[in-house]
Amino acid sequence: MEQIPLLLDGFASALTPYNLLFVLIGAVLGTAVGVLPGLGSSMAVALLLPITFALDPTAAFIMFAGVYFGGLFGDSTAGILLNTPGQSSAIASTFEGHRMARNGRAAVALATAAIGAFIGGLISTTIVVFFSPVLVTMATEFGPAEYFALAVFAFLAISSVVSESVLRGIGALLLGVALALVGIDGPSGTERYSFGIPNLFDGIDIVVVTVGLLALGEVLHAASRIHRDPSSITLPTGGIARIGKQDFRKALPAWLRGSAFGAPFGMIPAGGAEVPTFLAYGTEKRLADRRQDPEFGKSGSIKGLAAPEAAANATAGTALGTLLALGLPTSATAAILLAAFQQYGMQPGPLLFQRSGELVWTLLASLFIGLVVLLLLNMLLAPVWARLLFIPQHYLYAGITVLAMLGVYATSSSYVDLYLLVGLGVLGFLMRRFGMPLAPLMIGVILGPLAETELRRALAVSEGDPSILVSSPITIGVYIVLVGIVVVSVVQHLRHAREDRRQQAA
To answer: Where do transmembrane segments lie in this chain (predicted)?
Structure first.
């Protein structure tokens, strides 16, 4: 176990007052930027990248450790409180987290997210330290057919699990895939579904889709019911973010399940943390149906928040390990960090541990330190963020609308994106009104381009032979598990429908 002495040397370098100061600065700045709706962890790293150029490499990357996980901690805060996640990886956390916030448990929800992010990050960083050679070998086994199988798995598993109706789930998924097809087709350079509008040639930005469907859709839905349901938000009580023993026991298995989903996905470019967070959420939904949990989907389930939050940070931790060991960025944030390494004349990969071993192990040690700092910081700040819900409802939703418009316009300076935002907000309102789930649409938008690209690559390699899609043990195993999940889900839906008919007849 030669990693232990190297890690201890890294702690000796990181635990100096000078370096601890940069961990704290990075954690505060990363959390602050991550909390702002529409920005998120990748934007936090991008915005703070120029600040580090005046620092020596060790201090710079120690600060990045704080920024990296700080942005992830902050991503879910706006989603839980305002239903506007800072990044797409926090979307799954908003479904139950926002319900908890609306029912007076905002501080508990934020504390649950903070502990989940800590556990997921801790587990994944430990895996990176001790098992990165094995995980890197596993990552190299994935080709285009395996990536396509993962995308199909996410499509159908989410559509069949999180929706009360399989047909509605698949319908929402097809809407998401249709939105993902807008823009220039990469391999052929052909314009698709852009109606000749130059601003749509690059497709519809995920920020526009997320803010429009979740934030503006929620605003319109709340406005339509503000007189029918004037007390739809219960103000949080208590000033200290605490999780009781009973809630902790409920959340602990979900945190561990979420971490198990997230850690492997950080090593493969299969859509970042979105896939494991939605799969973790879908698993908790299926378990809740089996237990007949009255909180899930209604007042807010702590398990439905804990699992995706742990999955997101577990993915981020192993994504950083893949970047260091292979030089392969598997997320947007990791890609920005790759640019930071290159700015200092270093190329992540197997030789990085030999040429800059002291810096790498100091960075890994600072990740552990940053997680502890962020846990304490966010547990203390949770009641402060929860007080946002004391703002009167009409002012709160008006502020969300303004922030959504400003955030979208600031990212692109395009009026077309504002029109799209309004259109997607109306779509989100209609989907809520008619009981269509949002999760399949979001997963379709996020993974649609990946599925299309990998399918075309696989068919190009095989010269059009579709058997390549089921030619490896990994793909066969993925499809077998998928068929099992879909069959079980359909049986459960039919059973629930039969029980509902019996109750109505009675």
So the answer is: 20-39, 46-70, 107-136, 142-159, 166-184, 204-223, 359-382, 394-411, 468-491
Reading the block at residue 9, the tokens are 């040397």
Q: Which of 343, 345, 355, 392 is nearest to 232 (CA)?
A: 392
Alpha-carbon Rg for the chain, nearest whole angstrom, is: 22
Angle at 422 between CA 104 and CA 388, to 5 degrees: 25
**For the chain, what is the largest distance between any 2 Cα atoms, rounded to a whole number of angstroms?**
74
Measured torsion, CA atoms of residues 98, 103, 107, 109, in degrees rounded to the nearest 10: -40
Work out the number of other CB atoms within 10 angstroms of the CB of residue 461.
Answer: 13
What does the alpha-carbon distance between residue 163 and residue 253 come to, in Å, rounded to a whole number?
23
Domain that holds residue 133: 1-142+242-390
Select from 287, 277, 249, 280 the least CA-distant residue to 115.
249
In a domain, 399, yes or no: no
Report pTM: 0.68
CA gap 495, 501 in Å, rounded: 10
Task: Dump pLDDT digits (tens) for 174-202.
Answer: 898 888 888 887 667 778 888 878 888 88
Determine how β-strand 191-192 pairs with β-strand 183-184. Answer: antiparallel
Apex CA 166: angle with CA 164 and CA 170, to 5°?
Answer: 120
Amino acid at 396: L
Tell me the mean pLDDT per 10 residues along the chain, length 506: 80 86 84 65 63 75 80 77 72 84 82 88 87 64 80 75 71 88 78 81 79 80 69 50 77 90 72 74 84 78 89 83 69 67 72 76 86 85 67 73 78 82 90 81 78 86 85 86 77 71 72
Instruction: Label each residue of 406-453 as H, E or C.
Output: HHHHHHHCCHHHHHHHHHHHHHHHHHHHCCCCCHHHHHHHHHHHHHHH
Terminal CA-CA length for the chain: 65
- What's the CA gap between 24 and 194, in Å, rounded? 45
Q: How many CB atoms lie within 10 A of CB 303?
A: 28
Asked, for residue 412, whether it belongs to a domain, the answer is no
- d(CA 436, CA 429) in angstroms, rounded, equals 10
C-beta atoms surrounding 117 within 10 Å? 29
Q: Which of 374, 362, 357, 359 is nearest to 313 (CA)?
A: 374
Measured CA angle at 128 (ends 123, 129), to 5 deg: 100
How many angstroms separate the CA atoms of 264 and 481, rounded? 17
Count structural domains, the chain: 1
Q: Are 243 and 101 in contact (CB under 8 A)?
A: no
The Cα 194–Cα 505 span in angstroms is 50
In contact, 302 and 250? CB cutoff 8 Å: yes
Domain assignment of residue 481, yes or no:
no
Query: Does residue 16 form part of some domain?
Result: yes
